Amino acid sequence: MSAALPKQMRQIVGPPFRLFARALFLVVVLPVLYLIEPFYRIRLTAMPTQRLGELATNMDFFIRHRQFHGKPRRTVHLFVGWDPCNRQMFLMFQRLPGMHVIESRLGTRLLFAWRPILKHTRFLDSLDWDYAEYFMFNNTKSEIRFTEAEEKEGRARLAEMGIGENDWFVCFHARDGAYLWQWRPQFSDVWDTTDFKNTRIENYLKAADYIASLGGFAVRIGAIVESPLPETGNPRIIDYASRYRSDFMDIYLLAKNRFFIATSSGPAAVAIAFDVPCVVTSHFPYSHSSNHRYDIVLPRLITTPDGDRMVGFYEAAERGYYASSRDTGSKDPNMHLFRWRESDADDILDGVKDMIDHLEGREPPPEARQLQAIYADRYLCHLPDYTLAGKIGARWALKYRSLIVPAGTAPACPKEAARQ
After folding, report:
1. What is the DSSP secondary structure assignment for residue 397, as one 8-state letter?
2. 233 φ/ψ sector (left φ>0, alpha ψ -120 to 50, else beta)
3. pTM of the full predicted structure?
4. Residues in the chain with pLDDT < 70?
């Protein structure tokens, strides 16, 4: 009964609170906003604080947009948020020069109560964007910084894990269902529809072994994970998620690692916000890519529903699968046509080798570069500045060339072909 009481109270108190809040907005707040508009333009935004990916992605977009286009004159953006999923990430955005971030439960509730009215005015900035701002991302730099005290703390915690100041390390992350189920168990029916996005941590161990063999450290991250990392006996492979995890180090590790082995989930957005190169494993949809040109993408393979036959990306495209840049998987109306298959251990290892080649200045072979260009021209050409997006892995492209373009078919961009 006691657990249900707060919900019952919200159901009773909620409607009159929203009614009062909207009356207050219409009678007091909105007239004031219009009165000061000629002098200062106030723009209100509900800060996305509940999921790490949304927090990092949307705020990083705002900061880069301001850097790229310049700060609008006489304009103040007010961000209101509450109960951030990661305190360190929230704090770093909050203290940036020119940012006006208010942490307030009441303010957040008021803003959401006002939203039905605000969305019809000029005063709401919802941070909407199409997740394909490749030109902007490749012509801006991260503005997020740690303080000297935080740098000292980060180095000390790395030392506790056995990583010295002169050592290099790579983080890796496998999305699983544990975080969402623990965060919002009441939405289990929703999480069931997204579990195809999950990956197995075991698939990353071969890449972790390779990194360790080169003298680096491989650090498994994750806020909440289904199970500890299988015992490897290698001191250079560290299960940070199970043994050392904290809000602060979640961000510090992602900001400081040499590159990040990611899945399409929240931690990838943090690495991108710090301009850290990413190997994005089990990436979807195939008709979208990572933001930076130096990122390496390993698209999820597609099979028939029974899993018996691998499906070429050209076949999926012809059947209307993933035509939109904003589709994320569960929203595609043709989802029933195919099944996703996660990146396996060998593909992830190949992606890591590609990234190390890139960081050390070694070019992929000519055939791989051609396939990378063909893939972009055929499956990303609906996106602006798609040639600046992350490329598919060179080794992945050579291995799956038959899925990228059918034999005997000219590598033309479908958009250009439609114009002819």
Report:
1. H
2. left
3. 0.90
4. 1-13, 177-178, 180-183, 187-188, 190-194, 323-332, 408-420
pLDDT at 1: 36
3 state SS of 105: helix
> What is the bridge-based pairing of β-strands 339-341 and 391-392?
unpaired
Maximum alpha-carbon separation in the chain:
68
The residue among 328, 309, 393 whose CA lies nearest residue 355 is: 393
What is the spatial distance between Cα 290 and Cα 276, in angstroms, rounded to a whole number?
A: 12
Q: DSSP characters for 187-233?
A: GHHHHHTTGGG---GGGGHHHHHHHHHTT-EEEE--SS-SSPPPP--
What domains are defined for the chain? Answer: 5-129 (no CATH), 149-419 (3.40.50.2000)
Nearest-angstrom CA–CA distance, 201 and 384:
34
Return the bridge partners of 81, or none: 103
What pLDDT score was predicted for residue 3? 41
pLDDT at 140: 97
DSSP class per residue in 299-352: EPEEE-TTS-SEE-HHHHHHTT-S-SSS--STT-TTGGG-EEE---HHHHHHHH
Sheet containing strand 310-311, edge to edge, reads: 310-311, 301-303, 339-341
- What does the pLDDT read at residue 198? 83
Contact 172, 267 (CB under 8 A): no
Q: Compute the distance between CA of residue 138 and CA of residue 132 in angstroms, rounded to an integer.
A: 11
pLDDT digits (tens, 9 = 90+) for 357-383: 999 999 999 999 999 999 999 999 989
Can you give the pLDDT at residue 420? 34
